[in-house]
Automatic annotation (TrEMBL):
Family: Belongs to the glycosyl hydrolase 16 family.
One Pfam entry name: Glyco_hydro_16
Protein name per its UniProtKB record: Beta-glucanase (GH16 family)
Annotated InterPro entries: Beta-glucanase-like (IPR000757), ConA-like_dom_sf (IPR013320), GH (IPR017853), Glyco_hydro_2_cat (IPR006103), Glycosyl_Hydrlase_16 (IPR050546)
Source organism phylogeny: Bacteria, Pseudomonadati, Bacteroidota, Sphingobacteriia, Sphingobacteriales
Residue ranges of domain GH16 in the record: 436-683
Amino acid sequence: MMTAARLLIFILLNVLFLSYGLGKQGKPVKSTIVKVDNGFTIMRNGQPYFIKGAGGTSNLEKLKAYGGNSIRTWTPQQADEILNKAQTLGLTVTLGLDVKTERHGFDYNNPAAVAKQKEYVRAIILKYKDHPALLTWGIGNELNLHYSNPKVWDAVNSIAEMIHELDPNHLVTTMLAGVNQKEINYIKTRCPALDLIAVQVYGGLAAVPEQLKKTGWNKPYIVTEWGPTGHWEGLQTPWGAPIEETSHEKAKVYKSRYEAAIGQDKNCLGSYVFLWGQKQERTPTWYGLFTEQGEENEVVDVMQYLWSAQWPRNRAPQLDSLLLNHRHAKDFIYLESGKSYPIEAFVHDPDGDKLQIRWELLKESTDLKEGGDREERPQGLSGFIQNNAVDRTLLTAPPLEGAYRLFVYANDGNNKVATANIPFFVKSNSGKANEITYHFSPTPIWADEFNYSGLPDKTKWSYDVGSLYNGWGNNEQQYYMEASASNSIVENGVLKIMARKGNKKDKPYTSARLTSKNKGDFKYGRFEARAKLPRGIGTWPAIWMLPTDMKYGNWPKSGEIDILEHVGYDQDMVHISVHTQAYNHSINTQKTSKKKLSGVSEEFHSYRVDWTPTYIKGFIDGQEIFHFVNQNRSFKEWPFDQKFHWLLNLAVGGNWGGKEGVDDTIFPATFEIDYVRVYGLLD
């Protein structure tokens, strides 16, 4: 006879077996897209179906209870368990197919590798194509992020064709990072087998319907990732720490962006909010709607309202602001090591619940990835907060100089939480080298005031010519001309660099890039320029510096200093950055800061960096916005111990400048520079 325990195990095993059998042998539910008035809709099993979904596979019972109806995965890992559970709960699944990305080293010029990948996908399709919870196949994730080979879209279309041959019942899409003209054009011409596209947008979600219209996409789409303002989109501190919204601020932008885009556009078939769970990405709280302890933040309340038109009975606490030393994060907070400072969290609960407060101090994350790749969470630091259970207390700044971040969590006792954090930088008071006060020569040691007429002074400037290295490594669309008055001319006291329409060696635009290499090369100093920037989508002006002798090897090993960058699709937002082997945009670790500055295309502003042996600081109109410290590690972090030279250029399009296409009505576009000056570093 069976014991009760063995009988229970037998029953559970049979339930699991039957559940698996249903997943493998159940009848598929057919989904199609049909045209309706002013838009499209999904028809699932003959009924209209709008996706009210979330990215992630945890807390699925809650998603269902709050009005959600679908989940999205990034890979087919654990697909049996996920699909079966979704079916049990009455949810559908957009199942991710982990097609490899170029940025992770996959070569789409390798036919054998492409074919092998296709066969891998084939096995997945055959295994899960008849599962009744399946809704859509998602080919890859952000295959357009930092890529250069358009053959990836041929591979996507080949996979989509194969899926339709094997599985006539489900939709097929691919997930795109952002909305870009180049990728939409590729999808139109190279991927006709896709049923729809999927876009992934954060701060710019509200603009997606209009952006898609401008690209000429008038077909259906879904949004497979959307959420808070991305860590790359908002304000950053001078030491490169992005400033995160509070949970209350996130709740407001999630609601407003959804209602402006997903809730309005008839071509949108639904979305998957990010992230229905928790992960470390820049911080432990940036993207997750849940904390590491499983608490729900205020965005979960918003999603319940958006999905069901009803607010939950118990609302999450609302955190209005977090102050450190009576200052907000946007005030760029510097503290002295060993000193104590007041910290205050202003938070209330809509239901009057008693709040439980906890604080946490972390070092600023240094394991920085891109595209959602896994990051390691920084270890918590203890002993620096006087009382961890009150909303107003004292923080003692850690003894080691560097970047830190203070977190606060306010729990209502019902698993609802409010969160916020504030980055700060601790300065050592020990008199180390990075506390040295540097002085610069009172008059320039090298300059061009552009107080003459004609071509730029050939004793100070040469030209980079052509469109080398696949558009200067950035897929730029201009051909740089040498000593051409149509593209670089000095008149009325300013240098004018002009981008124009006109084919030159298969490039649709001409422009100029001036360089002082071997004519103005400097190690340390104050570098200042005064400029007025062009206006228009597709322009990308820059004032920057590169190493003259490439002491440590090619880019980014020998470094780059960007005194000014601006992209026309983000008008009036100016950037100052440095790039090294350890910190650069290709791995999304660059040290950068940006500032909104009204009128950059109507007025001249000054842009400057102070470069010393121990720091590089960046200034706009005399205000410091960027601070990069020499950590005295290796050239990988600090290659700035060699001579650099100026570059002045106006690019068109490219990976960044052309992210939202190029507006051909703006040309000729003119970048005006009043002067460039170098002040020497005094001993």
